[in-house]
Amino acid sequence: MFTPFSRIIILLLCAALSVAAASFGIYSLLIITSIISVIILYGYFRKGSVSLALSRLRIEDYKEAERILAYTTHPDRLDKKQRAYFMFIQGFLAREKDNYEEAKILLEASLNEGVKNQNDIAMAIIALTDMEMVKKNKSKAKAYFIQIKGLKVKPDLMPSIRKIQAWLEV
């Protein structure tokens, strides 16, 4: 959940502490700083800045989410869950830019890839339904919307769900 700049600062701090620990013979501090450095580097390659971008997306700060997501330069190196959320965020960013075809592909891929949070699944389904409603494709919108049944969603999504239910007459 760190930006690359904050990771570099932490790694530099760990390196300075390691040098000081080695010169004073404090091997326990040397081991601890080495472990922290490895964890920070692992997080950079396997987790990226996806969690931070996701938190910005959830508060609908799309510009900041896009800026933070751009820090992840190698999404193919991310673990499966982070890659799914990477596509999830990209899908919402594409939807925000009215690029519905790309958004549809990315959101469907994120659902297939492994977005596990039921509220996030519901958000993606609502977005896909909304895009089909914009295209005036009511049957496909209903097909997407039916998938929401049984998901546990947060109360802030309920107005959107009710509005879509009324429009689709489901």
The shape is elongated
Provide the succession of SSEs.
Answer: HHHHHHHHH
Radius of gyration: 21 Å
For the biggest sheet, the summary is: none
Number of helices: 9
Helicity range: over 70%
- End-to-end separation: 40 Å
Q: Using DSSP, what is the number of strands?
A: 0
Strand content: under 5%
Determine the structural class based on helices, strands and strand pairing. mainly alpha
**Low-confidence regions:** none
Mean pLDDT: 90
List keywords for this structure.
170 residues; mainly alpha; 9 helices; single chain; elongated
Can you put this structure into words, describing what you see?
The chain has about 170 residues and is mainly alpha-helical. About 75% of the residues lie in helices and about 0% in strands. It is built from nine helices and no strands. Helix 7 runs antiparallel to helix 8. The model has no long low-confidence stretch (mean pLDDT about 90).
Give the arrangement of secondary structure elements.
Blueprint: H1 4-24, H2 27-46, H3 50-58, H4 62-69, H5 80-96, H6 100-113, H7 118-134, H8 138-146, H9 158-168
Helix pairs in contact: 1-2, 3-4, 3-5, 4-5, 5-6, 6-7, 7-8
Summarize the structure.
With 170 residues, the protein is mainly alpha-helical.
